[in-house]
Specification:
It is built from 13 helices and 13 strands. The protein is an alpha+beta fold. Helix 11 packs antiparallel against helix 12 and helix 12 packs antiparallel against helix 13. The N and C termini lie far apart (46 Å).
Length: 292
């Protein structure tokens, strides 16, 4: 079936108006941002809603990337293309450009948004892995006010988030810490496809060159894109080395929970989780040291 069921359509003129509409219409309504996840699901009749509230006119309000001292703020309506093309964002977090280069194709990247990507909560979704790696927080607004939740609390399970009926994701906030960098790698069956497995890594070094902190986020190897906290614990205080990356890779392979599907066997995905963890950690450290 390639035609969605019938629905009413409204274009929101402000965040408050969109929230007011959703509060009134409840679970029968959905926001549509880029539409690149929602509309295919509706066409396949995997999802049916009575009302779609189009938030594309809110791009002026919610489409921004602000790099401040200690924090980057990105509006929910910021499109993939804008994330890819922002030199200021790439300077602080090159992991975004790494990931965006391998997300879908220009048609999808021109419309798809950060907010839609995180709210879709597909376990293979690349930006969720990026935001998890960077320890981002999500700013959610609803009729009762605004709240901020961590990425760990944001994703409740496959296709399920902390955003309740009547609420909206407004912004993602990412802490900026000194002497750090990041990287993302993905294995896909063909260019622009969803990940067989992907990994993001972020590393921060002390003045003596030891690892102050490190984070790894994986996609497509479990119900959620969770950070692998045992890796952070294991790497803190170590000198960056192949042995340290191998230890982290082994922890990533051990900690993930892939399933066998048309993209690959669970065993292959587990192997990739380990290998991509090693590669991204190595690349993040090389970037701090001015190479790669
Ligand atoms: C052919 C194709 C290939 C793709 N390949 C990849 C890939 O390789 N990697 C990858 O990560 N993604 C991929 N995607 C998905 C793409 O990144 C989508 O853009 C993204 O998943 C959803 O963003 P959107 O803005 O289109 O969201 P929409 O489809 O508009 O919305 C998705 C969901 O989020 C909700 N939503 C949207 N915005 C908000 C908000 N601000 N607050 C609360 N809820 C909100 C909607 O109600 C809906 O439930 C692909 C998509 C296509 C069509």
């Amino acid at each position: 079936m390639q035609v969605p069921g019938p629905f009413e359509y409204e274009r929101a003129t402000s965040v408050d108006q969109a929230i007011g509409l959703m509060e009134r219409l409840g679970s029968t309504a959905r926001l549509v941002a880029g539409g690149h996840s929602l509309l295919p699901m509706m066409k396949l009749r995997l999802a049916n809603f009575d009302y779609l509230i189009d938030i594309n006119d809110l791009h002026a309000e919610l489409g921004y990337i602000t790099v401040e001292a200690g924090q980057v703020r990105i509006g929910a309506m910021t499109r993939h293309r804008e994330l890819l093309e922002s030199a200021a964002l790439t300077e602080v977090f090159p992991i975004f450009a790494d990931a965006e280069t391998v997300i879908a194709d220009p048609v999808v990247r021109n419309r798809g948004t950060l907010g839609g990507s995180l709210c879709q909560a597909d376990p293979s979704e690349d930006l969720s892995a990026v935001c998890t790696t960077l320890n981002a927080s999500c700013v959610i607004r609803g009729p009762q006010g605004t709240r901020v939740v961590s990425m760990e609390d944001f994703h409740r399970g496959p296709y399920e988030t902390a955003v309740a009926d009547g609420e909206m994701l407004l912004e993602v906030r990412i802490p900026v810490r000194p002497n750090g960098s990041s990287a993302y790698e993905k294995v896909e069956r063909r260019a622009g496809d969803w990940a067989v497995t992907s990994a993001g890594a972020a590393v921060w070094l002390n003045d003596d060159g030891t690892i102050a902190d490190a984070r790894v986020g994986l996609a497509a190897v479990g119900p959620n894109t969770t950070g692998i906290t045992p890796i952070s614990r294991a790497l803190r205080g170590q000198v960056p080395s192949e042995a340290a990356y191998a230890q982290a890779g082994a922890l990533a392979a051990e900690s993930c929970d892939p399933v066998t599907d048309q993209r690959g066997s669970a065993e292959y995905k587990r192997h990739l989780a380990g290998e991509l963890t090693k590669r991204t950690l190595r690349r993040a450290v090389a970037r701090i040291n001015g190479s790669n």
